[in-house]
Amino acid sequence: MTRHTPMLAVTEAELNELRSRLLHTRWPAPWPADGGEAGTDPDELRRLVAHWASTYDWRTHEAAINALPSHLADIDGTPVHYLRFDSERPGALPLVLTNGWPSSFLELTALARRLATPSRYGGDAADAFTVIVPSLPGFAFSPQRPSLTGPPQTHEIWHRLLHDELGYERYAAHGSDLGAGVTSRLGEAHPEAVVGIHLTAVAAPVAYDAAGVTPEEQKYLDSVAAWSTAEGGYMHQQSTRPLTLSYGLADSPTGLLAWLVEKYRAWSDCGGDLSSRFSDDFLLTQASLYWFTRTISTSFRPYYEYAQGLTRRVERVDVPTAVALFPADLTQPPRSWAERTYHVTRYTRMPRGGHFAAHEEPELLAHDLTEFFRPHR
């Protein structure tokens, strides 16, 4: 059974401890380097930390989070938190949205509202969805799975939530980053229920003949290798020694914020100006969610489990698949590369936006989702 419930009740003692830690940050010796070139910009971080410690109003954001349509479900002993945005019209197609890292359910709320009530945003009520936004295991309000090796994997939890718990015989799915992997496995494992999937990233083919790679695909593979060298240090650490990293980030809110802000700056379509895409309060609320729920460590688990071969690889997805690429996102796979693994029926290169597209460009993303799923209702 599910129940609608407020999720947060941070005590004054917890708030005071956070502020004390922020105010007593032990800052490293400065480098003679341009801000942002060697990591998180120190001036920007100091400004955000000062706001977090003094003028940031957590209680306002806590109340907003508690006002969201949160539910808790028990899926064969696995607790799952999810948001449910009811459609403005009866009988709408259910759509499950899954975020990536370092995101949370909170990034998907603007998109979810557009999809559930399109008439409020100039759209047609006939295009409305019933939108389900689960928290990934180990993220925010969904506890981590109790075992590294035991079932069920996340895509099976999603299917049981949508199909068994909520009673949807057919549903649609969208995912970005880690969520794209979950969505891909969901479509692969349950084609009888999933009418189609919409992705902002694709899984690489399990195997391919290097001699058959096209020039466009080779250019893409070269860009992935270059990105991994320049930007992939976080992934290697989270995939190999995540616990070592987690001790520092769970103990220092300033360290946690630095780890997150670097990614919001580098992976968004902000041109180096973080405030052009994200308000200070948005960034601090994301960091506060990780801090108060103590889930930065458990959010690393998908990286480690995949690297250890504990997560099922995507082999072939035959349900209709849409790929939407945002220009500042991590990779830009050509259509032919996606078609090696997926039944691609829609492929869109967006004019702007990055890794956090649901927050950066909810209108663009909602439009693409609506157009893709319209024939599958």
Write the layout of secondary structure elements.
Layout: E1 3-4, H1 12-23, H2 42-53, H3 58-67, E2 70-75, E3 78-85, E4 93-98, H4 109-116, E5 129-134, H5 154-165, E6 171-175, H6 178-189, E7 194-199, H7 215-231, H8 233-240, H9 242-251, H10 253-267, H11 280-293, H12 296-299, H13 301-307, E8 317-325, H14 335-339, E9 342-349, H15 357-360, H16 362-373
Parallel strand pairs: 4-5, 4-6, 6-7, 7-8, 8-9
Antiparallel strand pairs: 1-2, 2-3, 3-5
Helix pairs in contact: 1-2, 4-16, 5-6, 8-13, 9-10, 10-11
What is the structure about, briefly put?
The protein is 43% helix and 15% strand. By secondary structure, it is of the alpha/beta class.
Question: What are the key terms here?
Answer:
9 strands, Rossmann fold, 377 residues, alpha/beta
Explained architecture:
It contains 16 helices and 9 strands. The chain is an alpha/beta fold and 377 residues long. The protein has a single domain (13-20, 37-203, 214-376), classed as 3-Layer(aba) Sandwich (Rossmann fold), CATH 3.40.50. Strands 1-2-3-5-4-6-7-8-9 form a 9-stranded mixed sheet, with helices on both faces. β2 and β3 (78-85) form a beta hairpin. The radius of gyration is 20 Å and the shape is globular.
Into which percent range does the helicity of residues fall? 40-55%
Mean pLDDT: 96
Shape: globular
Q: Work out the helix count.
A: 16
How much of the polypeptide forms β-strand, as a percent range?
5-15%
Order of helices and strands: EHHHEEEHEHEHEHHHHHHHEHEHH
Provide the low-confidence segments as ranges: none
Which fold does the CATH topology refer to? Rossmann fold
How far apart lie the N and C ends? Answer: 27 Å
Biggest sheet: strand arrangement: 1-2-3-5-4-6-7-8-9
Estimated structural class = alpha/beta
Tally the beta strands.
Answer: 9
Please state the CA-atom Rg, rounded to the nearest Å.
20 Å
> From the 3D coordinates, which CATH architecture would you assign?
3-Layer(aba) Sandwich
